[in-house]
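Quick one: structure tokens for this chain, please?
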Amino acid sequence: MERQQAIADYAAAWSGTDAETITAAFARCWTDESTYTDTVTDTIVGVEGMVQLILGTAHQYPGFTLRPTSDLDTHHNVGRFSWVMTTPTPMVVDGVDYGRELPGIDFVEFTSDNKIARIVGFFG
């Protein structure tokens, strides 16, 4: 797997609308030990935790999508990329009203076969 494809699958998972679609996208880019952490989320481990996080986000912000806004910048087994989450309704995260677009940046670590081992995300 190429690293850029792993990020594309990760973004597709975030834009999935049901558990099956989200799980299938993560099956291509994630492992059972992969972790996710952002400014409002405790560390989540594995595919099922991510599926629940995304479905919860979809419940809170129906119709949201996430898309990368930069190419993946990497060296060694780490990288970063910018993204934007858009939604038909205004988003308030950690007391900050982001309107209908929430920009962010994710820092990523890759496994030896270029799956995502860890993501640490920041908003704004």
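The domain at 3-123 is CATH 3.10.450.50 (Nuclear Transport Factor 2; Chain: A,).
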